[in-house]
């Protein structure tokens, strides 16, 4: 039943094939028409091509004519410049003048008589110059020595702090300090002092002094203090600094 219905349907299954055949047919017809047109008028393409070439030729002629005009103007300008005489423009001269040539030093030749052939003129000049140089050097050395002698010499000094210990706690520390300060010498200057506790109620006398190294010896100073046997047991150097 279904097969019978499909057989009765009017469907064109081969339509695409017929469409392709129709396109091919019309393409062939168009080619035939173009060939026929060319056969009827064979010079049409040649004429169009010739017209294009003529236009290009005309454009080239125009460009060549313009170039000829420019070249002609340049030739006229060059001729005018060649015929014009060359002159120097004063406004273009350099502001700075040219450097003058350095003069060539001429060596002076000493004139000598026939009788003075054996005289060494240059030797005498060199000896005079040596004497002058030696004299100037001696003067400068003398001036330097005089200046150095006027400069005050530096005096080497030292700051010494001494620890002076008594015999016991019954020693009179004030009397000890008085006896110590009685030691007088050139280059010795006593400073401040204080009592520093040691132990068991015993104190030591710490006293400062300034001594000149060339005049006062530390060993001599300690010997002088230890010579105070009624009060002093021993002397120690607590500090020693150069000034």
Question: Which key terms come to mind for this protein?
Answer:
single chain, 243 residues, alpha+beta, Alpha-Beta Plaits, 4-stranded antiparallel beta sheet, 6 helices
Count of alpha and pi helical runs:
6
Instruction: Fill in the CATH topology of the domain at 157-242.
Output: Alpha-Beta Plaits
Structural class assignment: alpha+beta
Report the C-alpha radius of gyration, rounded.
Answer: 67 Å
Task: Label the CATH architecture of the domain at 157-242.
Answer: 2-Layer Sandwich
Top-tier CATH class of the domain at 157-242? Alpha Beta
How much is the average pLDDT?
78
Main sheet specs:
4 strands, antiparallel
Helicity range of the residues?
A: 40-55%
First-residue to last-residue Cα separation:
143 Å
Using DSSP, what is the number of strands? 4
Shape estimate: elongated
Q: What portion of the residues fall into strands of 2 or more residues?
A: 15-25%
What's the CATH H-level homologous superfamily of the domain at 157-242?
Answer: Ribosomal protein S6/Translation elongation factor EF1B
Residue windows where pLDDT falls under 50 for at least 5 positions: 110-117
User: How do the strands of the widest beta sheet line up side by side?
Assistant: 2-3-1-4
- Order of H and E elements: HHHHEHEEHE
